[in-house]
Amino acid sequence: MPLTREHARDLDAADPLADCRRVVARVDDVLYLDGNSLGRMPVATPPVLRALVEEEWGRDLVRSWPAWLDLATETSDLLGREILGVGPGQVVISDTTTVNLYKLAVAAVRARPGRRRIVVEEDNFPTDLYVLDGVARDHGLELTRIPTDIDDGVRAADLRAVLGDDVALVALSHVSYRSGALLDMVGLTRLAHEAGALVLWDLCHSAGAALTPLSESEVDLAVGCTYKYLNAGPGAPAYLYVRADLQAQLRSPIQGWFGQTDQFAMGPDYEPVEGIERFLAGSLPVPGILAVREGVNSLAAAGVPALRDKGVALTEYLISLADAWLEPLGFRLASPREGALRGSHVTLEHPQAWQVCQAWIADGVIGDFRTPDRLRIGPAPLYTSFEEVWVAMDRLRTIVEAGTHLTFPTERSRVT
Prior knowledge:
Elements: H1 5-13, E1 31-32, H2 45-57, H3 65-84, E2 91-93, H4 97-110, E3 117-121, H5 126-138, E4 142-146, H6 156-160, E5 167-173, H7 185-194, E6 198-202, H8 214-217, E7 221-224, E8 239-242, H9 286-300, H10 304-326, E9 332-333, E10 346-349, H11 353-362, E11 365-366, E12 368-370, E13 374-377, H12 386-402
Parallel strand pairs: 1-11, 3-4, 3-5, 5-6, 6-7
Antiparallel strand pairs: 2-8, 7-8, 9-10, 10-13, 12-13
């Protein structure tokens, strides 16, 4: 692949999603390669939030609740249809990913009485490990961690080696937060089902940038956040998915009044509603749900298949530049090289990755750092251009060639 800036511009000229860059806000010349941590803000979001605050809340007050309840249902179904590829009534926006993971994990192990183990990948996102460890401990279960290579992620042989008829739940991340490894949702779900286990997928690093074949795989349960590729903003509410035919069999361990049948009857006993809303708990975060709607809309026109194609092309281009420019400087690719096995971010290993990351940020390029010694680079297919990738990688090469990164502290800050 040619390594010139002119070639990057040619790729942008041929990009069918080039016009999508206009749907997000840009206030400076920073090159943003951290869309897998926090997405850019859609230009449509501020005016709708302003209308919510000034008119629906400020003027109409409590009279807005019927419309807000409709907004929650419609946005949940919109997310399910446009991003996850599932039918209505199977997705609900609520709480955080951590809380939703807890709700679904407890519901799952209670639905498999007599089974004694939860299986989770060894390099799953930390909150997943912490929550599942707590669920296992509180329910007298064993937590089995799948030993895997942190660059390549879980493959069929890895999961098969730890399955058995005593497994209640298998919990996996569709795309690894550290390396970007994309797992085979169809094949791994089938293996778990053959062992009689329920499967819970974390979609945080895939939804909006990769296809999520929940229906094709007959996935039981899933959770995900909305502030990464879905561009809903910091602290935006998360979502959960429960396959339609399982909903009546599962009961949330957090029995809140928004999951109650005829909630305004204010009855003393809890009777969950029939549908997906049984996994709701407290009052809905209306501003956050409105931001989710605009975030999903920012992606819907492009479509997830086209976003996936662009993500593969961007990361392949990034890897080609890293091979030519950065490998001679001590960098190593710490992500799957094959596009079909990779999500939309790329990780490079370097012994001074923390200092490199800080020097890069100081030079106007925002990526991020992950232990151990990894620079994580997340071009977002909706709004990142090939020329931006070229310029960012050229600056990275210049920084390391000059040794500029060595002038930055080795101590990590709280947020990396």
